[in-house]
Structure formats: structure tokens, C-alpha cells
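Table S4 entry, ABC transporter substrate-binding protein.
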Amino acid sequence: MSLRYFKSFSVFALICVLFLLIGCAKNDGSDASATSAGSTGKTKLVFWSHQEDAIMNAYKALIAKYQSLHPDIEIDYQTFPYDVYNQKLKASFSAKNPPDIAEMFGTWVPEYSRNGALVEIPEAEQLRKEYYEAPLGGYTLNDKLYGLPLEFNIENGGMLIHPQMLKDQGIASPPATWDELVEDAKKLTVRDANGIKVKGFDFVSSDNITFTFLSLILQQNGKYWGDNDHVDFQTPEAQKAMTALTSLIATDKVADLITFGGELDTSDYFFQGSSAMTYRGPWTIAAGLNTYKVKDFEYVPVPSFTANPPSYAAESGWGLVASQKGKHQDAAVDFIKFMSSDDNLLEWNQGTFTVPAKKAVAQNPDYVKANPYMKTSLDILELGQWIGPIADRDFFFKTINDHFQLMATGQESVESGLQQIEKTINDSQDQHK
């Protein structure tokens, strides 16, 4: 599920920032460190997560189930607005007063595991066989696991399409090759006096510019990581990938930059009929079905850039970690294992409309039957690899996005843009060492 999905702006969130160290949790009846036995004689575990209705409901159901199986355990579940949640976590760990169990986005985890702040999850070798590679990446340090992912955060490999728009242009089926994708996108693009009215192929989002760029490198059997956690974008594969990507704007003109960075997501514009094909993760499907009530769309594979399989990079998504400062680490790890059992993960993934990180759940016929739109993503989970040791996720993506806009509008050459991206990101990587 996209990290950007939860970045909802509100006055309440701003107030919470001001009182971050005081706390603004729902049901915040105790301090994060209050993990000893309370007046009931039960072992108390504090569990934090961000606020999102489906996710909170899924957690609450499984917490109740766990407590019924472990009457000696009480879980104090506290939630925080996404806009302040990461800051709240950092403040609690810095103050050596973190929750026993914390929901974290996989990209955040290395900052804590490198500093010895998290409990190691046992049986790492066996768990690596049970999970897909990409979701585990952020939770892994020196071949040890410091948490377990609940979802596979995939933004690649699938796109939303309006089948009727394709039929209206005489296109019988979704594109099977990259060349077909470009040609179909040209036919599907609709213009009026003000510019593009319907985008043929929209990939211009804060996530998908970067994810598409990296996937085009990988699909050429290229690499983008060098030594010492530095990126290497001075390769023929990177040059070809970025040239193809910027050409979709500058030459093929199947999309533009007008709505980039706005309040609405590219998927919102798709469901409003402003694009024929939109490259976005499967988490957007729920918005189409439930918010926009659109039924006549499909989620289909994005063809590979080459004759190679459509490999891609993915971030590690939402998961659970246990704090080293917790007084009941064994109980905290036991709850994480409980959440990560096949049956409970199936319930969580179905309730949150997320892609499973665990192979047995993704391959469960009940999950596939309940989520037919997910088939495109499920078919390529084995092709995903961890995006890598990004020190500052937002800065990494913003750097690529900023220079992409300059290159796509002719203000910077692809060669110069990639040089600037590489230098800027590597400087950031060094600053975080």
C-alpha cells in the first residue's frame, strides 16, 4: 500500500505536531513504557500504529483474538494520524520510551535496527523461505530479521485501464510489449485547445516516476546500486531507461506534468475519466470500486521494457517490530508471530485490501477468489526485489522527481540530470552514515 496514500492533511494533524511529545493517540490511556503488570495482574503491552480505518479495524479484531487466547496479556492499542506518526516514533525511541510493539513502514526500519533499537526475530532462515524477497529487505540487517512485514508494497507491474476507451480506438486488447504500450498510448491520448484532455498513459506520480525508472533499469538486467550504499546512474541501462521515460512526455506526449504534485492522485484522475491507462499500485483498486463506484475498469499487466521478465524494485511495506526497551520482549515477539501466522495474515490482508508479503497467503485460493483484481500483482511477486538501502526515502524520490521534470521539459539533458541525481543522492547517503 502506497506510503503516500496515508498522507492526509488536517488541522488535527497539525495540532498533533505541536504536541508531539505530549502525545495525541486515540485510546491513549498509558505511557508507552507502561508494560509491567497493571492492577489486573496482566502483562501489559503497548502497541502503536498509524490511523487508517481498515488497518485499525483489522488490528483490533486480531488483538481481541490474541487476548482471548492469552488471558494473561493486555494489549493497549494506541493510534496516531499518519502525518505525525513517524515523528512520534522517532521521539519515543530517542527518549528511550518506545512502545513494546510498533507498526513501521519497512523503509523506516533500518534506522532503528542499525542502532540496536529493535528485537531480533528468531528463525530468520526459515522465515526467509516463507516470505517474498522484497518485503523482507527493510527488516533485514546482517542476515538477521528485526520485524516482519504484513504486506507486499508493490507499485509496479500493473496498470488501470478503461477497456471501452481502448475499444473506441480499435485496440482489441491491452498492450503486450513496451512498443505496443507507447503506440496505444498515443492513440488513446485526447487533446483539446487547452492541451491534453485524456492522458493515454499516465505514470506521473511521486511514486511511479521513480519506480518505473528503476524497473526499466532492472528489466535490461542492469543495476543501480554501486559500492558503499551509493547509487550508480551512469550506466547505459540507466540512460536508456530515463530517455524512454522522459520521451513519453517530451516526444510521445501521452501525458504531461500539469497535475503532478497536486492533491489528487493519478488514480483519482483515472477514475474521473481523465486517463485511459494509469500506472499505479493495486491499492488504488479499492478507491475505484468503493469511492468512485466505477465498475468498467480493469487492472492489467504493464509489459516489460525488454524481452526479459518484468522485474521491478519494491519498498518493504507496513509491518511490526518489537522494541529492545520493552520489558516483555518475548511477549511482544509472540504477538508479532501470532499476527504473522497464515490464517491471521490472510484475515489482515483481506480486511485491508493489501497484497500479502507471505507466499502461503498470496497463493491461498481464498485470497485469490476474494481479490480477483489482485491477480496481476500476485502473478509477479516473485519478480520483485528490495529497492535497497535508501537512507532518506522522501529525499531519494524527490530528487529523481525534480530532475525528471527538468529533463522532460528540456531544461536539462538526460546525461546531466542523471549525474545530478546520482551526486545529490549519494551525498545524502553519506550524510546518514
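The longest strand covers residues 43-50.
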